[in-house]
Amino acid sequence: VLSERLKTVAMYLPQNAYFADIGSDHAYLPCYICSVDPTATAIAGEINEGPFQSAKKHVQALNLENRVKVVKGDGLEVITNYDVRQIVIAGMGGGLIRSILDNGKDKLKNIERVIVQPNVDAHLVRKWFVQHHFELVAEQILKEDGHIYEILVADSVDETNVSLDEQKDILFGPYLLHEKNEAFIEKWQLEKINRIRIIGQMQKAKVVDYEKLEHFKQEVKLIEEVLR
Ligand code: SAM
Q1: Ligand 1 centre and the CA of 31: distance in Å?
Q2: Which of 15, 75, 79, 226 is the most exposed place for a label (fewest CB within 10 A)?
Q3: Residue 173 included in any domain
Q4: PANTHER family, alphabetically (predicted)?
């Protein structure tokens, strides 16, 4: 059975999807989508041999070789045709997701939707979307097995209508901020505690990066504002 996390990602793929799942590991998501939707097609991209082999085995076991193509490669380089319309990048840090998108910019021309699930630093991906003509259209936050996950969905646009104004939208996510559900509150309570701990460590250290210190202090203020 697919995790709630990946099921939530799956919700944002259209019928008849042709998508690339980058860092697919066991190819669970492409196999799930192609099993429930006989019109769907996918590329499962993997950079590492172990996960690449697991993906191939799983696809073969389900007899989905015709519709799930498992390709070994770095990031978006596994996208070699222009039929691919959606990209999923899940289960990595926001920094890595951003660099995968950035390094593969030439592969994004026909991409209609990008769905990401950054484990940390979602703000880096939100910022990247704003700067690259992708408009955030939905966000989800959920807790599963003790972990809190964020899922961001962005569609390609000529002009971004929704400008994520200011730091607050970028940091918290405009939709998540609006909803402020239980998982969101829990996440940001933890993030606040983390930052306070780091501030304490920095103040104890002899050499202090004051700019960084101020940045953390200001973020704590923002978090308190949002949780109030
Ligand atoms: N996407 C799956 C999920 O969400 O359950 C698997 C996540 S797993 C934690 C991350 C995977 O990304 C690993 O299998 C790793 O080998 C792969 N990966 C890391 N960097 C990559 C890159 N630049 N290109 C393709 N795959 C990458």
Answers
A1: 16
A2: 15
A3: no
A4: TRNA (ADENINE(22)-N(1))-METHYLTRANSFERASE
